[in-house]
């Protein structure tokens, strides 16, 4: 497969050739200061008297005046409302003594002392699904001590199977009594 050739990139636009004036292209030069021979009543603001332009300006002016009036009326209405509310507030009497209410509210010191820590609340620890290693070792040592006591007991030494079956029978009765 061969190379793909790219076209040459042009950095400059080609020069613009000027057109030579011909006899058919006539330019009429008008002297702006020369008003002789022409109607002197021409108004240079004649475009403003155009009905479409005039309506646009009138609408714009009316919109401006309308917005200004709304702002002014809004301020007046707000001032009237404030005056009415102030008057109404002055007419309402304070009912009862607020001193008793203030005494009933707790002070900041009492609030801070009440929420110092877990002493005020009884928080129960959740039982873990897998106990900590320290607790497991402690339980294992207790179980070993219990088995040693059982092995030293004289009734176990005389009849080990009978003693164990009797113990299990008593334990099952105890569990049934707890359930009912």
UniProtKB/TrEMBL annotation:
Keywords: Nucleus. Belongs to the SLX9 family. It comes from Tegillarca granosa. InterPro entries: Slx9-like. The lineage of its organism: Eukaryota, Metazoa, Spiralia, Lophotrochozoa, Mollusca. It is found in: Nucleus, Nucleolus. This is Uncharacterized protein. Pfam families: SLX9. The keyword Nucleus applies. Residues 1-26, 113-138, 156-180 are annotated as: Disordered. Residues 1-11 have a biased composition (Basic residues). Residues 15-26, 119-133, 166-180 have a biased composition (Basic and acidic residues). The keyword Nucleus applies.
């Amino acid at each position: 497969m061969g190379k793909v050739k790219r076209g040459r990139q042009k950095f400059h636009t080609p020069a613009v050739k000027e057109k030579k004036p011909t006899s058919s292209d006539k330019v009429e030069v008008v002297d702006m200061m020369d008003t002789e021979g022409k109607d002197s009543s021409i108004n240079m603001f004649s475009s403003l008297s155009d009905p479409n332009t005039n309506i646009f300006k009138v609408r714009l002016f009316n919109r401006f005046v309308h917005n200004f009036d709304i702002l002014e009326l809004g301020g007046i209405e707000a001032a009237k409302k404030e005056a009415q509310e102030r008057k109404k507030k002055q007419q309402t009497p304070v009912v009862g003594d607020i001193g008793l209410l203030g005494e009933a509210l707790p002070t900041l010191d009492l609030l801070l002392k009440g929420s110092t820590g877990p002493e005020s609340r009884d928080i129960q620890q959740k039982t873990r699904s897998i106990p900590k290693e320290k607790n497991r070792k402690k339980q294992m040592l207790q179980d070993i001590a219990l088995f040693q006591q059982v092995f030293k007991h004289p009734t176990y030494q005389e009849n080990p199977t009978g003693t164990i079956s009797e113990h299990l029978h008593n334990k099952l009765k105890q569990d049934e009594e707890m359930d009912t």
